[in-house]
Structure formats: structure tokens, C-alpha cells
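User: what does the whole thing look like in 3D?
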Amino acid sequence: MRISGNILLAAVLLFLIGPFVIICIAGLSAGETLSFPPQGLSLRWVARVFQVESFRNAFALSMTLAIGATLAALVLGIPAAYALERYRPPGAEVIRNIVTAPIVVPGIIVGLALLRHLVIPTGIGVTVALFIGHTALLVPYAVRVVSASLVNLRPDIEEAAVMLGASRLGAFMKVVLPNIRSGIMAAFIIGFITSFNQVPVSLFLSGPGVTTLPIDMMFYMEFNYDPSVAALSGLLALMSLAVVMVAEKVLGLSRYV
Amino acid sequence: MSDFLKLDRLTLGYGDTVAVEGLDFAMQPGELVALLGPSGCGKTTTMRAIAGLMTPMGGTITLDGRDITRVPPNKRGVGLVFQSYALFPHLTVFENVAFGLRLARVARAELTQRVDTALAATGLLHLAQRLPRELSGGQQQRVALARSIVVEPKLLLLDEPLSNLDARLRLEMRSELSRLQRELGIAMIYVTHDQSEALALADRIIVMRDGRIEQSGTPDAIYERPASVFVAGFMGFENTFVIHNGLLAGIAPIGFEVRDAVGLAWRPHSVVLGQGPHRGTVAGASYLGQVVEYLLTTPLGDIKAEAPASAPRHAAGDTIAFDLPEAGVVRLPRA
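Assistant: Here's the predicted 3D structure for the full assembly of 592 residues, as C-alpha cells:
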């Protein structure tokens, strides 16, 4: 029983981590084409990643987008979560379901809908469209994670702050925000990673010269079948891993997801 | 003379529900007034209106000569100690107490000195750097108190401040509150449903019922001369009866002059057991040390009586005679 359990565990781990390990090793190949096992080991394709201009541009866009859209989602999501939690407006549950719908709806539908009904009719720029699309995608995470930490916060501490001379806004800034800070940080990290790894929505909202990193990697692979994409994937996976590990260490991220 | 706090025909409610109707009430500087009543009588609502946390539907509130009916809560100079303490969980005891002074931009040296004074007065100096979650209930209660008095409000409201403490701590905090109030000379309104707390602390008790004032007076006056059947029941008169057609509870002759009373009340120790015109069956007996407390089932309703422990005992099921003598009666002018 115990042995078969361990075998099952090993199988699952292999299934989850195997591709990551294979990609990392493939990225260290010395050969000309993407292959596994690699033809010799070298860092030439890792170095190559930093020389491809479209990678550099796409990385910059993805970073900007991930940070900008996550911040925007928090700016929208924190007040929304606060209002839903504190004022319980009529139909709060319906509103909560609508707000969190994009988590359920497949990204490809969100992307298509935004393209068809926002970008094409209004003719807004591709970068703006990406920003709006990603923000819309991240608001549900912000609302849910921030709501979770608001539930544990007594509403009467705001009244206490007001009785001691604070304005309503002052009470929110001085008493509510510091107490949901770890929830906000958790929402930021989840939002950042979700945006950075996003493919379906970005696919519809990318345009000439404006592509996010995952999309650019797909395009690159269509024309160049070399190991640099594998090297880049490995680097990105390590970056995500580092972010999550730091978050778990500092905030106990697993409490919120 | 002008009153320190004056509520004039104050009407309060939520939506269509009126919780408090036409409340008139005045208090003097330095007075400690207890608002006493069962839950739902409007006492907490009244307190929240004085604090400014809810807007009256009608009437005015005047504090220290200034109409504060529409003044926001943070500009009233009124302090509030919450039933749940409502401490700021992310701040140390020191910072919790300093919160109001920081908002008022009090200079650092003065701030430290005033916070330390408040912490010393509440016996918290050694806990200044702790977080609220590291404190016991009684200590949290002291922090809430220190935090409210350090900003020197004109009026301090306390919402059932002792109800979350165990019995021994409650007594301790009660005398501490009393001492602080004497030392600071600050006017306080103390909301409670516990008659013994109200009796022990207050200069004046206001008994509320269904959003109105039922009776107002000194603790002695209310305890000795309750004005109604309701107040008598609330003040530990276990045996209260209304009078119907000149008969006790509409069935038994009374045997003395009722005058203009609509109800009569006896405390358990005023009921005479073993003789008298009434009959009852012993439903239970509790030995309390000095006395034995009996619960009697009678045609008049349940009666609570006390007899000295040295007197002959009655067992459950015994039928005994008892008397409700004029000597121990309190006449109640209202229902």
C-alpha cells in the first residue's frame, strides 16, 4: 500500500515537473535545433535569448503590462471588494458572480469578445486594448483575494478610528489598508503571474510590433526551431518560481488561493 | 441653567422601523448616567446617535451649548468604548492609544507623555509594545478605555463595556471605571442591560423600554420605588402582579389598601412562608448558604420566595401557605 502510494506520488510529480525539467535541459543544448536529449551542453542559447530584439521588446511589454494591469485591477478591485463586503448592496451575490465571471469564462472567449466588440468598433490602439483586456482578466482575482482578507477584519475598527477623529477615508487608509496588506500583496502576485503567462486573451489583442512575451515566443518558434525558446521558457519558469517562493515565505500565499 | 448634554424629541430608526421615539433627556457635567434596558429597547441606538454614527430622523442633540445633530462623529469631541473593544490589530498598545493624538498632530514629546499617563492610569505601561492579540480580554478592555480617554473627549460613551469579561474581572473593571471617572471628572453614558452594573456605577439610571424612557432617577430611587411593573421586573422584584378588578392578578383578594397602584411587587425575601391566605406547591428549592430559595407554583403564577436556612425546610411537591404582606410591598403606578 505504502509503496504503491509512493509510486503514484512519483508519477504525479513526474507528470507535473517532468516537462519543466525537459525544457530546462533542452535549453542548455549545444545543438542547432530543439531536441531532447540535447546534443551536448552549453549556455549559448541562454545567451542568445538576451540578443533577440523581439524577445527584449516583448519582455518589456509583458513586464509593463503585468505590473500596470495588476495595479489597475487592484485600484478597481479593492474598492469593489470593500463595497461588496461592507455595504452588502442589494444583489451583492449577483454582482460578485458577474465580477468574478472571467475566472470561469475561457480566455479565448474573453479575447474574442474584446476584439470584436471593443477594439474593432472603437479602433483603440493595441497596447491600450491589451491593458484593458488584462485588467478585466485580473479584477476577479483582486476582488476575491481582497474580499477573503476583508472578511476577517471587524467593521467596527473603522468606527473606532472615526470616533478618534479620523475621516471615513482616513479610517480606510490608516486602519483597513494596513490590515489587508498581505491580501493585497497576494492579489498582486497572483495577478502578475496570471498576466505574464496569459496567452489566449493576448493572442487576440496583439498587433504588429506589439506582442507579449508568450505570443512572441509562439511566433518565434514558427520560424526558428532552435533551443533559445526552451532556454527562455526555463528562465521564465525560474522567475515565476522565485516570485511564488518569496511570496510563500513572506506572506503565506497558500492561505489566499 | 443650560444642560451639558441635551436630547430634544430625538427620533431614531433604520429605514421604516422607528427604534427610538421622541426621546427627551438631559445630563450635567461630570455625571455618570446608565442607560439600562433589555436588548432591543433602543439604548445602543441612542448611544450611536449621540456618537454621530447614525443620523436622527428627528429632534436635536446639544452638547456643551452646541447643536451637534448634524456634526460628523469625528468632530463632536465624543469618545466611544465599543463592546468588542475594536482595537486596531496591526498596532501596538502604545500606537492604539496614540492613534487619536497622532490624528490631532500632537507634538511628539507631549504625545509620549499623554499616552504614558493614560497607560499608567489603566495599568498597561508594561504592555505598551504588545499587539492586541497578545492581550487578555481584560487588558484589551483597558486599552480601549485608555485609547478613548487620552484624547480627552467632552463625553465618553461606553457600550456594554464589561459584558465580554468573566465575573471576577467584571467586578474589578467596574471599580476601576468608577475610580477613573472620579479622577477625570468626565461625563459618561454607560449602556448596559445589567441592573447590578447600573446600580453600582451610575449617578443616575435611565431605564428604557421600546424606544422610550420608562423611568429616570438615582439608583436608590429606581431600586426602592420602581414606577412600573416593567421596571420592577428589571430591578430584581421577582414577584410582580397586575391588579384586575381590585384583585391580585385578577383572582386573589389583596387584604390592604392598594391606593392608585396598577401593580404590586414583592422581593423574594418579603414573601412570608408557612402562613397566610395563599397556597402554593413547591416546584424547587435551592440552598444558597444563608437562605433557601423556593420556587412555588401558585394560582397567581410562579412565586420566588426566600427563607432563612435555619427555618424548617420544605420539599418539592409540598403544598404550603404563604403571605404577601403589606410590609414588603412596592406599589407600582404604571404597567
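In plain terms: The radius of gyration of chain A is 22 Å. The mean pLDDT of chain A is 86.
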